[in-house]
Structure formats: C-alpha cells, structure tokens
Write a structure and sequence with these properties.
Helices cover 28% and strands 23% of the residues. The chain is of the alpha/beta class. It has two domains: 361 residues, ANL, N-terminal domain (Rossmann fold, 3-Layer(aba) Sandwich); 101 residues, ANL, C-terminal domain (GMP Synthetase, Chain A, domain 3), CATH 3.30.300.30. The strands form seven sheets. It has a nine-stranded mixed sheet with strand order 4-3-13-12-14-15-16-17-18, sandwiched between helices. Strands 6-5-7-8-9 form a five-stranded parallel sheet, with helices on one face. The protein starts with 6 loop residues before the first helix and ends in a 12-residue tail after the last helix. The structure holds 5'-O-[(S)-butoxy(hydroxy)phosphoryl]adenosine. 5'-O-[(S)-butoxy(hydroxy)phosphoryl]adenosine binds next to helix 10, strand 16, strand 22 and strand 23.
Length: 575
Amino acid sequence: MNYSNDSRDVAAVTSPGSIGSHSYEPGALRSALDIKQGGTFNLGALLCDRHCAQGRGEHMALIWENHTGLRKSFTFDDLRRHSNAWAHKLAELGVKPGDRVCLFVDRVPDLYFAFLGILKLGAVAQPLFSQFMADALEVRLADADTRAVITTGRHLEKVRSVRARLPALAWVILTDVKSGAHPTLVEGEVVMTAEEAPPVEFTPFPANEDTPSLLHYTSGTTGRPKGAQHVHGSVLSQYATTRHVLDLRPDDVYWCTADPGWVTGTSYGIIGPWAVGATQAIFEAGFSAQRWYEFIARHRVTVFYTAPTAIRMLMKAPPPTPDQLVSLRHMCSVGEPLNPAAVLWAERVMGRPFHDTYWQTETGAIMISNVPGLPIKPGSMGKPVPSIAAAILDQQTFQPIAVPGKVGLIAFRPPWPSMFRGYFKAEKTYQSKFVGDYYLTGDRGSVDRDGYYWFVGRDDDVINTAGHLVGPFEVESALLRHPAVAESAAVSKPDPTYGEVVKAFIVLRPEHAGSDELKLDIMNFVRKHLSPLAMPHAIDFVEKLPKTRSGKIVRRMLRAQEWGEPVGDLSSLDD
Ligand code: WT7
C-alpha cells in the first residue's frame, strides 16, 4: 500500500475491478443486466419485465406484511402487470417523461408498483418520507416543480394544505384505497390501486444510462434541501454492490428496513435486490424487537440490511430465541457510525457480525464496506469497493494525505455509474462539491495502514439522527415561525440510541419568558410543521447566540459544547 502524497498514487490503492466471481467492470455488468452499451433500456422494466422474459415471472418478488398482520405476496409478473397499470394511469393523466412524480406514501405495495411505473413511463420518481409534515413537503414539492403526488388518505390533509401554493402540481393520486372507501375527492384528486386496475400492456420509455430516474432530497447546512438527480444507469453500481457487498442472490429472502423515502430504501430496498431478482420481505410496521425477530423467522430472511439505531434498539430488548434467526446468513448496516459494541453484540447474540457500509444519497451506491470475507475491524467502515478510488484529503490543500490515521476529508474520484448528476436547479452547490480530481463527501475520516477507512464526523453542521440527515437551517426556519422565537440555532447533541438528536438554542422575543411548558410547545410545533425527526429533543433558552463579526451564527461552537469538545475562542471569530 502506498501513502504517497501524489494523487496519482491514490489510484494505486483503488481496489481491483473484481473480487472472486463478482465483476465491477461496466461491460460485464451491462451484459449481466442485458444492457447494450450506448443502447436503450428502462430501469423499471429491467427490475421486473426482464425476469418475466427470462422465465422467472412466477418467482416471488415481494412478501409484504403490515402492523395489523395483513400479508400479501407478489411475483415478478405481478410487479410487471401492476407497474404497467401505474405507467398507463400516469400517462392517461398527462404525466410526461421527465416530469417529477412524488411518492408520499407509507410502505404499501402500491409504493413499489408506482415506483416501477414512474420509471417505465420515463418520468422521475421523487420519494419523500411519509412522516414529513406540511412545511417539509411543500419546500421539496415547490423546488422540484412536482407534477403529481401519490399518497394515501392518511397523508392527504398535508398535501391538501400546501397544494394551493404549488402551481405545477396537477394531480394528487390516492392509492391503497378500496373502491368506494375513499374520502370525498376534490378537483385534481384521483384514486388508483394497481390490484384493482384492468390489465394493460405498456411499452417502456426508451431510456439510456444518463436518463433521469430519481430525485432524492437531502439536507445540507445552508439553504433548502437539495434534490440529488440520479439516472437509469445507476443500476450498474447498485447491482454490483448488491451482489458483492450484500452478497445477494436470486434465491435469497432479503429484508432492508429502510423506508424508500430515503436513498437506502430505493438503491437497496428496490433497485439492487430486484436487479438481482431476489425476494424482498417488507414489514410496514413500527419497531419492536420481538416482532422483528418473528418476521425474520416467519419469512426465513437470509440477508438483513439495517441501521445502527435499530441495532442499538435490538441490543436493549430481550434477545431472540435460538431458533428465530437460523435462516440469516449475512447482515449489513448503514447510515451512521456503527459502534464496535454493536458489531460484537451481534456476533454474540445474533450469531454473526454486522458488516458496516458507507455511502450517501449523492453516491447512489455503497462506496466503502466490509465485504464478506474481509476481516472486520469493529469501528471501521471497511475498504473502498472495487472500482472506487477513495482518498482522505487534507482539509486546507485538498491533497491526498499520506499519513495513516491522520484525519481529513473523505473523498472519491469520479465518475462511477450511480453518482448523482446534479442538484436540481442548484448547479453552483453541485460544483462546490468537487475540488480538483475529487468529489467531497462532507465527512471527515482517516485510513489506516491496512487500507481500512474510519469515520470521524461530518465536516458541516448537518445533524444525523437515527441515520436521517436533518438540516439545521430547516429546523431554524420552522422555529422562527413560532411566535415566541426571535432567533435560534439547531445543532446535534449526542444520544445513546439515536446517535445524535436535534438540540435548539433559542433567544426568545422580549415579551416571552422561558418555561418547560414553552419548551414542549416549541418541540411540538416543529414536530407538527416540519417532521418528527427534526423535533428538538432539548432546548436551551439563551440571552444571545455566538456570532461572527458579520453576524453569522456559529453553530459549531454550540455543537462542540454539547459533545464536550474544545469550544475555541469566541472573540476571534471571523466569517
Ligand atoms: C451520510 C449520508 C448511505 C445511505 C443512507 C444515508 C453518514 C452513512 C455511514 C457509516 C458513518 C455514515 C455520513 C454520510 N453515514 N453511512 N457507515 N458510518 N456515517 O444517506 O442521508 O445521504 O446520509 O450519512 O455522514 O455522509 P444520506
């Protein structure tokens, strides 16, 4: 291994193009997926129609269960037919290729059918976490000029409350509603449930590897959330890593606990596993260790992909019974730092360790991981996957750091197939993510002598709570709408279960006095307007906030205080 300072040498530490029988070579990936180089294909059709054409139409694609115990299952042929129905319906409503169609639904089967249907039509899927409240929804729909929103009765009021301010939004499509049981609809609202729709054939839009597929909103430090634009060709990376890192094969039963409102739930909760042709088990229910173990046992789940917060919650609950996890053969984790204790606990109690994986909305696919067979160093994220050139860059010079263990910026050298192609209508922000030969992740870390990467923290003020990114600016904007709040700063605070939670420092308007009651009122205000994830778990009322000479609030000082890190000298602050 070479730790020379020359960026060329970093390429030398890039993993080879394949390990064992898994190739990362684009040509081999294309032929495995029946994609012709430079030719047309459609990701929606690739994920279901392709399996049917290959005689696997009767293979189980989706085993679905919800909190009431209702169970349904669907084959790849069901996926093909139901997604055709969605593509047809959207086309009938006048949705055109390239239009954004938002999925604002819980994990009901129609979410998956509609996702595939949107892609078949050549439209762009915009998944949003259904727990978002009206403010979070409005900002993202306005930014994307979204043409149609697919939702359920449960979330309809939120959509209705913002619709008048969204001129581009032509249709609200209610799904998962039995005929006749839907609420009174107003103009522009329609009902569509694929299982009840008449069968139709649909000719998929002839996309190519650069055709837009998904727009995933993610939070930054400043300004509004940004829509990371992905393309149909992302499947090359997702397929390769699903095979190689998640070790998934067509005969596996795979459970990814992530919601498709976030990128893990699409890249590895829809695209990767169905590109492989595996069976997905989906549990539309809140967390309960007991029910999770029962779910794994009932459906004989073989591969499990979840997040550290969920693992820490399992650790606090009674252990599984010896027979519950016998089907499991591989487990991976993503989204936040996986503490060494969680790896060791899993080995002892679940019979195998969690393999950490690291990536982002922007990378579209796993970039660093502990692949099967690589000895795990608990606390490390593992090594770059084959074909990915990773580096730790100096924070001032942006040159690769030569010294093992020295902390710098985690960066990757583009391109790779699943890389985002832009932030929607935010070209300058997109450009700011690239320096020299590298894409900057916004995370800090180090690499050791053996080439293992270690996560240290974010290089910005974004809060990672339970594996979900929350932008401080969005929280502060919501706080400002509360009548008692004059000024605020939202920062992360350590939390034993969620990793981090939101903490707000608030300067009250002169006519308001701080009280516990007011704290609760403000917490609830954020939960109801923005999202439960963004709700501050703690509030401090303060006289003033630390600011630079030009008046910018210095969140990092408040954050340092919360984490017990050196705060630095306030008086010398510049911009
Ligand atoms: C951010 C990306 C990756 C899909 C889900 C989240 C943090 C991600 C790890 C990990 C420590 C991690 C980083 C990253 N993160 N994986 N294994 N160890 N931190 O996607 O919402 O775009 O968040 O999550 O800070 O930049 P995302």
